[in-house]
Amino acid sequence: MSLKAPIRKHHAAQVLQCPPARQPEPADPCAMVIFGAFGDLTKRLVVPALYNLSRTRVLPEEFALIGVGRKPGTSDSWRDYLYDTLKSYVGNPVTEFEVDHIDDAAWKRLADKMSYVAGDLTKPEAYQKLGGVLANAEKAHGTEGNAIFYLAVADRLFGTVIDYLGDAKLTQQTEDKNGKAKFWRRVVIEKPFGHSLDSARKLNTQILRTLNEDQIFRIDHFLGKDTVQSIMAFRFGNGLFEPIWNRDRIDHVQITAAETVGVEQRGSFYEVTGALRDMVPNHVFSLLSMVAMEPPTGFDAQAIRDKKADVLAAMAPVSATCAVRGQYGAGKVKGKKVGAYRHEPNVATDSNVETYIAMKLDIDNWRWAGVPFYVRTGKHMSRRDTEIAICFKQAPYTAFQYTPVECLRPNWLVLRIAPDEGISLQFEVKRPGPVVNLAAVKMDFHYSDWFAKEPNVGYETLLYDVMIGDPTLFMRADMVEHGWRIVQPVLDAWAAEKADFPNYESGSDGPETANDLLHNDGGREWRPISPTGCNKP
User: Fold this and answer.
1) Catalytic residues
2) What is the mean pLDDT of residues 320-334?
């Protein structure tokens, strides 16, 4: 049963009663340099996000976009390549960026400021050439010397590119006599940031020889989603929930990030990464830390990141006995037959790499002591579903002595991140009739019912934050290292053992052993991922 909200017309009237929404501050004039100009990330996410910023007039007028890559090409050929990609998204519901049409004026504002530099990123000559292009962009577009360097390249090149940028003095910032920067230089680094605790520490040490921490923006596109950012607004903007957000009232928390896609054409990447490295120390821990953090003293970047870091610091390394791995076999996903992971391109026929991970995590602090956090993520699952589900402790049975025990269910508060963004609350009511029978119902908020949905790939907010120098949604060095510290024992144990793969069918909710992880820990159960799940609020 669902207690539906009013129709959208009534919603709009209610929303308009609020004070007018604050508008984004103008971003600083700047140039943005994308290393990996012809890469998948650039065409699929970064440039569509910049186009959206242009379309909504958030992109600064004094802006230049410079692509750098190995591929021979010209500025015109790069523009054409990206425009053709953008056009392919029109009316295409399977892409991450569905649009009805291209706003040619918005595209032209961006395209007129684009240029391309062909060069080998492992050679100093490329950076010398880039320095000249940046100087020309400053004169032509008024960027005032500000520059963002976006590393949309293989992670093995992160340290190399930053070293060469430093050698070419492209990362140096200047200050006036009052210590205020005349112009700034910032570097955006994609995941994976290391492959282990040791490699993450080495990479941090290497790049901090060239950059200050406040110049580094370790990006996680999960945090660009409005529904992720709204977690803090929901917790700290409502007096109703914060008093019960603790070990006294909450039994456990489940975080799920399920995907219906397989590894697609990324077999080579996945063979050296796996589900744990790909998702848990970054995406999943970002969600967990926002749910579990203490109230910050203010909503500035340092206060928020300090509280999130405190959560990760309070988490002990996970034992391999508290983790389950899986690898998908053949099956059906959304009614279509799909093959096993070991039959994917560029995957070993005896691969030991996991495509599913579930683990139990404990936070050893006053608020969360004794409250387990269960996390899981996997590919080729039954349904795409990213959510945070808070299970509250069961009400006492005393007043309902004639009600079967199994009919007294715990209350669930569910924060849906994707694809059906919203929040639902499940609770018990009495069924109509002369006998006291309980029924579980839910109140359900959908973002789409209240707010107009704009085309968005999740990078718009993050790129804008880099332009204004706000690091709130980006990982600090200590946060990255804590993430790897927590999962390192599991990585070490799995590297030394051969798994019995495949152990779950494509299109299912994962391996059976993942159910044992919860059942053996107080008789708990995962919430079903499948839409047919009977207790899915």
Assistant:
1) 283
2) 97
